[in-house]
Amino acid sequence: MNTRIICYLCFSIMLFSCQEAAKKSKDLALNIHEKRHWSYSGETSPEHWEEIEKNSSCGGAFQSPINIIHRDVDSLQQTNLKIQYNPTTFINKVENNGHSIQFDFELGDSINYKNKTYFLKQIHFHEPSEHKINGIVYPIEMHLVHMNSDGEVTVLGVLGEEGEGSVLFEFFESFLPIKEGAFKEINQHVDLSSLMLNEKQYYSYQGSLTTPPCTENVNWIVFKEPIILSEAEVLKLRSNMPVNNYRNAQPLNGRRVNYNY
């Protein structure tokens, strides 16, 4: 009887030890996975996205952003872009997703590009700019992300430089600060037509999302003329985002960049 009890106790201890070891192994694996989620610094910075985001296109041949060299672009006189923003664009919410400040929109405003209609989904920011023009890095870049009914994406890249204050950016920043992982309901109108993008010259090319999963076949439109906002507005956005939340310029790999004027 004593022998059986001893054997039973030994078996129970061994089983408990195995379960604890399995749990620790699982917890360790989860922690490693969490630690290796993409970011903008250290071992999970953009240089490592391809290896840590296994199901992404971050190692693809047609990635974004790029350095646009004006003397190398192809010039086109006829524009394929019509921006249909109005003074009553409806913002749903703002979110700090840990990578940027993102404003989400209800279905409404749209652009027409190459005879397809794309609806504005969200706006977010990178500091400093991701795209360069002739090697110049701007203090900030705003991405206006649009999608059509087939899931195709067109992004407008608007560069910003410091100068006088911007009424539009004052509106955006009135909902800041916001903690990482948090969001705020807005449900207000904003006038994006004040950007006057229809009047601006732009570059266009085929690229990708600039964050994982780095999906390719994205239409990029990068405006040559930057918008103006104050240094204080740049600093306020910066203080609510990760430091240097940008991806370095990617190789063109034979892609053509068009200049529309």
UniProtKB/TrEMBL annotation:
Enzyme Commission designation: 4.2.1.1
Keyword Nucleus on entry: no
Species lineage: Bacteria, Pseudomonadati, Bacteroidota, Flavobacteriia, Flavobacteriales
Pfam family, one: Carb_anhydrase
Assigned protein family: Belongs to the alpha-carbonic anhydrase family.
Keywords, sorted A to Z: Lyase, Metal-binding, Zinc
Catalytic activity field: hydrogencarbonate + H(+) = CO2 + H2O
Biological role: Reversible hydration of carbon dioxide.
Cross-referenced InterPro entries: Alpha_CA_prokaryot-like, CA_dom, CA_dom_sf, Carbonic_anhydrase_a-class, Carbonic_anhydrase_a-class_CS
Enzyme class, first EC level, given as a word: lyase
Protein's UniProt name: Carbonic anhydrase
Cofactor: Zn(2+)
Alpha-carbonic anhydrase domain residues: 36-261
